Amino acid sequence: MGLEIERKFLLKNSDWEKLIDQQTSIKQGYLNSDIERTVRVRTTDKVALITIKGKTENTTRQEFEYEIPFKDADSLLKLCETPLIEKTRFIVKYQDRVWEIDKFKGDNEGLVIAEIELTKEDEEVILPSWIGEEVSHDARFYNSTLITNPFKNWKKNKTPANTG
Questions:
Q1: If you average pLDDT over every residue of the chain, what do you get?
Q2: Considering the domain 3-158, what is its CATH architecture?
Q3: Which of 16, 75, 95, 128 has the smallest C-beta neighbourhood within 10 Å, fewest atoms?
Q4: Among 148, 138, 140, which Cα is nearest to 83's?
Q5: What digits encode the pLDDT tens for the residues 64-112?
Q6: Out of 30, 66, 94, 142, which one is annotated catalytic?
Q7: Cα–Cα–Cα angle for 114, 123, 11, nearest 5°?
Q8: Which residues have CB under 8 Å from 155's CB, separation 6+?
Q9: Going by DSSP bridges, is the β-strand pair 48-54/37-43 parallel, antiparallel, or unpaired?
Q10: Where are the domains of the chain?
Q11: Are 62 and 1 in contact (CB under 8 A)?
């Protein structure tokens, strides 16, 4: 069984941009975005994947991910709930850790989220100065939620600052 242990954060500023190691474009859709489980199809510049994730408990959930042919991914994306999620993922290395920073496009333009994967829930993480509020437990920031409640619809006065 695969497990994903992940924490998510908003960003205080754009200082992380000086540390970008690589970037890739991502398009993803959800065949199922139920809170108990999600089934996601994703294409990047290099690979197409189908991913099944279980319900998040604390910061951990079951995750099963498999590479699939691009042709199949393109067909599956047409079956997905809309809108699709489009974003650019930046890989940033900080103190021997890999951070994934997603800058969203389309209906989620303006949203920038930093993620770090852990090997255990209580693993100590030294947060860079550009990391802001943790949003790991806020369902609004789940990609599967962003298709039904995109960032553009959030009330600005109730949205945490996000200047990344």
A1: 92
A2: Beta Barrel (2.40)
A3: 95
A4: 148
A5: 999 999 999 999 999 999 999 999 999 999 999 999 999 999 999 999 9
A6: 30
A7: 20
A8: none
A9: antiparallel
A10: 3-158
A11: yes
